[in-house]
Each structure stands twice: as structure tokens, then as C-alpha cells.
Amino acid sequence: MPVIAAVNGVAAGAGANIALACDLVIAARSASFVAGLLEARTGARFGGHLDPATPRRHGARAGAHVARRQLSAEQAVSWGLIWRCVEDGELVSAVEDLARQFAAAPTRGLARTKQAIYEGLSRTLPQQLDIERDYQGELGHSMDYAEGVAAFAEKRAPRFTGR
């Protein structure tokens, strides 16, 4: 399942890296991210909490920059490090709305989508296309797919069961 991080305030050190390791990060406008900077200032081992996937997920330059400075939530969005920045008072409702959307979605489809995205970081394009073809074939035989098609044809909300 997709993992959502809600950031309200300063996400520093391991907290920043945990947030950046999540699939989707929604931050309050007043939030900021500090990864590695605190360790470097105190003489501790730099990057002791740095998620090794950060450069792969967000690009080596972005990973290096977030490890050296404090970023506002707006900067993090513009760099593609987080998904959304919302007004402080909207954070809880934005995260709850997204969680409700995922809870109502076809779980097998979400799982395969997430798997294809993250495993695709180490595949060639032909390999990725083969995997996506295989996942589509698998999911096309699921009860959730049949329910999604039926709901669309009947102009109603689908009721997915994860099968």
C-alpha cells in the first residue's frame, strides 16, 4: 500500500529521511526538512540516517542538497522531493482525504503500481514494459478489475474487495 507522510513542523535528521522515504508526503506550508545538516554541525557521522534510496528516488543532486541545508515545504515541492504543500490548517483534512481515496481503491492494483514504480528504478525500459504488461494481464483477471468495469458501465462507485 502507498505510505503517506504528514509533516507539520520541522522534520529533522531521521525524521526528514523517514518522511522522504514515504511514497507521498504532504506538508504544512510552515513545515521544513533538515536531513544531515544537524549531524554535520555537531561533528557526528554525516548521513547516519540518510535513506540510501533518496538519491535514487529524487535524483542525486536533490538528495545531496537536502542533506546539506534546510528546505521549506514549498522548496521541497518545487524540487520534487514531496508531493504537496498545503496551508497549515488544511494538513489533516488533505491527508485524510488521500487516505480515504487509497482505502477505496483496488488494493492489488495499488500494490502492483507501487511495485512497478520502485522496482523500475533498476530496470531497463524493455524490462519495465514487460513487467507492466505482465501486471496488467494479472490484474485484468481480478475481481476488482471486473468490478471497476461494471461500476464504470453502471455509472456508480466501485466496491473493491482486493480480489
What's the SSE blueprint?
Layout: E1 4-7, E2 10-12, H1 14-21, E3 24-28, E4 32-34, H2 37-42, H3 54-58, H4 60-66, E5 70-72, H5 73-78, E6 84-86, H6 91-104, H7 107-119, H8 125-140, H9 143-153
Parallel strand pairs: 1-3, 2-4, 3-6
Antiparallel strand pairs: 4-5
Helix pairs in contact: 7-8
Overview of this protein structure:
By secondary structure, the protein is an alpha/beta fold. It is 53% helix and 13% strand. The strands form two sheets. A three-stranded parallel β-sheet has the order 1-3-6, sandwiched between helices. The longest helix has 16 residues, at 125-140.
Short description:
It is built from nine helices and six strands, in the order ββαββαααβαβαααα. It has 163 residues and is α/β, with parallel strands linked by helices.
Number of helices: 9
- Name the poorly predicted regions: none
Helix content bin: 40-55%
Distance between the termini: 15 Å
The helix/strand series, from N terminus to C terminus, equals EEHEEHHHEHEHHHH
Given helix and strand content, the structural type is: alpha/beta
The strand line-up of the biggest sheet is 1-3-6
> Using only CA atoms, what is the Rg?
19 Å
Number of strands: 6
Q: In percent terms, what proportion of residues is strand?
A: 5-15%
Q: Main sheet, how many strands, which sense, barrel? A: 3 strands, parallel
Mean pLDDT: 86
The gross shape turns out to be flat
